[in-house]
Fold:
Amino acid sequence: MSQKFIKSQNKNSSSQAFGKYFATAVYDNHFIGTEELADFIQRQASVKKSDIKAVLQELGEAFKHFFELGQKIKLDGIGIFKVGFSSIGVTKLDDCSAQTITTRRVLFQPETTRVVVGQQKMEDGSVKQKYVNAITMLKDIVFEETHDNAMNVEASGNPAAGPSTGPSTGSGTNSGTGGDNPGGGGGNDDSPIDDD
Structure:
């Protein structure tokens, strides 16, 4: 299996990337829910599906509990979650209060792994490694071009996923954030968070 993409051209004439082609993510119409996560985990581990479902259903409550305590949550192999919010700017210190907080959101910083991508021999004979930080969950993902703007899980031959139940999320949008890709639709709009 692979993450599918289509080739799409930037047609925004005021963009510096006008006319350039970008790989654009295509997602399945189906959302993976608690039931399917529990099925998958049960096949990978020696834990009953009913126990897995109970844990997954309590996960949201556990997050809420620790967020209310001002805690950050770190899940190994996944990343760090914490509360973020916006507030209205005020001119007086005394006017800055909880009432000025407007929007709340969950900030997510994926776990990264250092991956060696090459070596450089130094003048003194030593070898310096070159590396990048890769998002742990994504570093082994394979990408494959498709010609469908919205994939259907039944057409892709994945019987475990079941019927399509959710809306398409992202077909026809540029979801990358690097280079001069003008899209950037796939992630959150907040800066990465620090693990301090």
Notes: Helices lie at 34-44, 49-68. The longest strand covers residues 101-110. Strands lie at 3-9, 21-26, 73-75, 79-87, 101-110, 112-121, 127-135, 143-145.
